[in-house]
Amino acid sequence: MQVPTVMRIGSALSGLLLVLFLVVHLAGLLPALIAPVQFEHYATALHHQPWLPGLEVSLAATTAVHLSFTVAKTLRNRGAGNTAALNSRRGQPLQALASRSKVAAGVVTLGFLALHLQQLRWSRPADGLEREVLQQVLQHPISLVIYAAGSLAIGLHLLHGTEAAHRNLGLLTPANGSSIRSGGRLLASGIGGGFLLISLGLALGGLA
Questions:
Q1: How far apart are CA 165 and CA 9, in angstroms?
Q2: What pLDDT digit, counting tens, does each position of 22-59 carry?
Q3: Is the pLDDT of residue 199 over 90?
Q4: What is the Cα–Cα distance from 164 to 31, expressed in whole angstroms?
Q5: Helices (H), 30-101
Q6: What is the per-residue pLDDT for 1?
Q7: What sign does the CA torsion over 146, 147, 148, 149 have?
Q8: What residues have CB less than 8 Å from 183, skipping those under 6 apart?
Q9: What is the end-to-end Cα distance of the chain in Å, rounded?
Q10: How many beta carbons lie within 10 A of that of residue 78, not counting itself?
Q11: Close Cβ partners of 147 (under 8 Å, ≥ 6 residues apart)
């Protein structure tokens, strides 16, 4: 079990904070599929909260911290000669893929985030039009592909990140490793699959 360092702890804790945001954000988006009126009430109330700008700044800072620590840790590992190919020794090729593609998944996620903010944050839809604007965005094939790719990238990143965060914090042991990996798979499929389901559902609903 590796001894946690400031770099590893910072990467893990910032990542866990971002996961918390994803869970809350997903919960807020789900009514867009099944309860549009309630979703618009929620979105309007949220956008008029005085603390929202501060939360957005905090999320941007947390993202920057996570990205900085992750890049620094990756460069340090490579500088130390850690260039071995990542292969699953547990017969879990999907988790091996998530480990190998963590940089690519991060880049795709950042690209998706930039597009998402440009389309729905700068500028923000008028009150009562959040769902309609989101549907219009998702009816464009390129946007839908990017949103779907972003959802899958988030899922892959979480699949790797759940185990990596526990390892970075010194909490991963042979005794709890299986439970942590199972929880990571559940978290990744729930969040990544949830965002993908919402994107496809709104796109198809808008076309219908």
A1: 8
A2: 999 999 999 999 999 999 999 999 999 999 999 999 99
A3: yes
A4: 32
A5: 31-34, 36-47, 52-79, 93-100
A6: 44
A7: positive
A8: 162
A9: 53
A10: 10
A11: 112, 116, 138, 195, 199
88 backbone φψ class: left, alpha, beta (φ>0; ψ -120 to 50): beta
- List of long-range contacts for 52-60, beta carbons under 8 Å, 24+ apart: 59/18, 59/21
**Could you write out the three-class secondary structure of 100-118?**
HCHHHHHHHHHHHHHHHHH
Average of per-residue pLDDT across 71-89: 64
The answer to whether the bond into 123 is cis (omega within 30° of 0) is yes
Cα(124)–Cα(48) distance, integer angstroms: 11
Q: How far is CA 167 from CA 2, 3, 19, 131, 176, in A?
A: 7, 9, 16, 39, 11
The tokens describing 95, both together, are 């988790």
pLDDT digits (tens, 9 = 90+) for 83-100: 544 444 456 777 777 777
68 alpha-carbon distance from chain centroid:
16
- In the structure encoding, which two tokens stand for residue 4, read together? 């946690």
pLDDT tens, residue by residue, 113-172: 999 999 988 888 999 999 999 999 999 999 999 999 999 999 999 988 888 898 888 888
Distances (CA, A) of 175 to 14, 161, 178, 207: 25, 19, 7, 50
